[in-house]
Amino acid sequence: MDTKPNIRGNIVEGTTIAPGTGWSRVLKKGEMLRIVDLEGKQAVDFLCWNADDYEDRYAAADTMKINETGIFLGKGTTLFSVGLTPLLTIVEDSCGFHDTIGGCCSTALNKFRYDVDQQTGCRENFLAEMAKYGMGKRDMAANVNFFMYVPVGKDGEMDMGPSISKPGDFVDLQAETDVLTIISNCPQINNPVNDYNPTPVEVTVWQPN
Description:
Number of strands: 13
Oligomer: single chain
Number of helices: 3
Strand order of the largest sheet: 1-13-3-11-8-7
Structural class: mainly beta
Order of helices and strands: EEEEEHEEEEHHEEEE
């Protein structure tokens, strides 16, 4: 049974993002973005910037401090920038416990941690999408990982998964200003964040009535 709220408004984009690939779009203030984990247990790496000032990027630490909800993001969380601009608010969420401390995988990190060569990651996907907007390595920031569960143990250790998301789990975000959003549908196969099997996700952008 489909438990996702109906989309009411004008759909401006509907896209399936293949595993290991990127996607980007500028959301206009008030527009909605839905991300659906089609098969479950798929990490969706996510970055965002104030579309009018790319130096005003997502700020993980300030987002956690301002929302006072700990290290996990969920319904009601507003994502803030380094300039304390409200960027996006999570208005619906069927999964919860979205990570904002684990960061992204990369070719270098895969080599360092798993001794695999030339295995690209979310960092490379981010940079490829960022280049379309004239940005580069200096514009990177710590990212959100939707549907990725990274609990911290009593001794401070991090556990990179496995994910707790189910097929069809979704998150809806509303743009609080014009926002550049970039997704990397995580290709990681060396740890359990994608259950060792990256799968597609779906995004829908719409203007509410």
